[in-house]
Amino acid sequence: MLLQLRVAGVWPHSDPYLFAALSPAGLFAPIVLLEALGEIPAPLRALWTGIVAAARPAWGFIITAHPGAGTGPCRPRAGDPGGVILVTAQALLRAGVRDGNIIAGYHTL
After folding, report:
1. Contacts 24+ apart (CB under 8 A), 59-65
2. pLDDT value of position 41
3. What are the DSSP calls for 10-22, one per residue?
4. Which of 3, 4, 11, 99 is deepest in the core (most CB within 10 A)?
5. pTM score, two decimals?
């Protein structure tokens, strides 16, 4: 949907900072939700997806609004570790659910 709005040239594409902040959430939240199906219980899965959907736009805005973030508002720095952090957090959450604790044991990890 965000890409179709960008092609049409309507809001939020008209605000490059908002578009750059929403794009990572639109990419990562569905991936997190689908990857967690069958592994993480529904209430925790909904909470985790909500956290990702809220945190990724904030991180995207910080990355794009940073003075050293490239030449324009839609050009994030090359070293955006958000995806790596998200994959690691998802793996730790799944291991914790599998172990039945908040922090998984060594053998589960």
Report:
1. 59/24, 60/20, 60/21, 60/22, 60/23, 60/24, 60/25, 61/17, 61/20, 61/21, 63/20, 64/16, 64/17, 64/20, 64/21, 65/17
2. 93
3. -TTTTSHHHHHHH
4. 99
5. 0.71
